[in-house]
Amino acid sequence: MGEPMMTPLTDPLIGIDGGGSGCRFALVRGGQRVEVSGGPANVSTDFEGAMATLDGGIHALADRAGRSVADLATARIYVALAGVVSADLATEVARRLPFPHIVVADDRIAATTGALGAADGCVIGIGTGSFLARKVAGQTRLIGGWGLNLGDDASGAHLGRGLLQRAVLGVDGLGPTSELTLAVLQELGGPAGVIGFAATATPRDFAKLAPRIVAAATAGDRVARGLLSDGAAYIERGLRRLGWQPGDAICPVGGLAACYGDGLPDEMADALTPPKGSGLDGALALAATIAPGWQQP
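^ thats the sequence. predicted structure below, dont judge the formating
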C-alpha cells in the first residue's frame, strides 16, 4: 500500500470489491495505490447497509489519499458487488454514488478478471457466497451467484445453514449426529435455539460457522465431512457443465475455495492454480477499460 498521494489527481481509477463478509476499496493514480476496507456489502440482502458501507469506504479512501471525495470526481470507478442481480439494481447503486464515470456490476466478473488476468481458465469462488466461472478467448461463462435463498452451494453460508439443518435432522433421527452437531445444539439452546438463530441469521451469520466445519471435517467429524463432500460434488458438476477440460487451470478464490481441493477428482485437484490477483485487482483492471466520459445507463 502506497503513502497518501498529495499530487493533483487526474483521471484516477477506483476499484471496489464488495461481498457478504466485507468490502475493499482501492485508488490508483500514477503507479501509486492506496487501499481501505469496510463492512459487508451485499445489495440484495441489505441494500441500505451496503450503501452505507460504500459511502463510508469511499470517504475513508479519499482520506487515506489525503483528498476529499469531490477531488475524485473525475475517477473511472468499477464497483463489483455481491447481490447485483439486475440492471435496475446496478443503476440504483450508481445513482447513489457521487461519480459520473461508473460501472456497477456483480462481483463475479471482477473476481474472475483478477484471478485469471488475460489468461483462459476456470475460477471457483467460494466465500460467504459462491460462483463458478470459465473464460475462453475473452468470453466468460458463469454459474451460481444466486444468493443463499436459492443457491450459493458450497459457500460458507450454505455450509453453516447445512450444519444447522443436519443438527435438527439428527434430533428427529433422520440423519447422523456428530460431535459438531451435538456441540452446536448445546451452544444454541437445543432445537428451539437453532430455529431462533436461523430465523434471523444473515448469510454472514451462517458463514461464521464455516471455519469450524472445515476444522471438524479435518478432524474426521462425519457430518462436517459430508457437508464438504457435497460442496465438492457441486463444484465438480458445475465445472464440467462449464466445459472444463484437463489442462484448463482452476483458480480458487475466496476464503473457502481451497478447502475443497481434496474433495475434487485428481484431474481437477492437479489443475488448481494460485490466482494471479484478487477481485479488487480485477475491479481496478476493469475500471481502466471504462471509456472516459462513459456513464451507467
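The chain has two domains: 13-112+278-287, 120-275.
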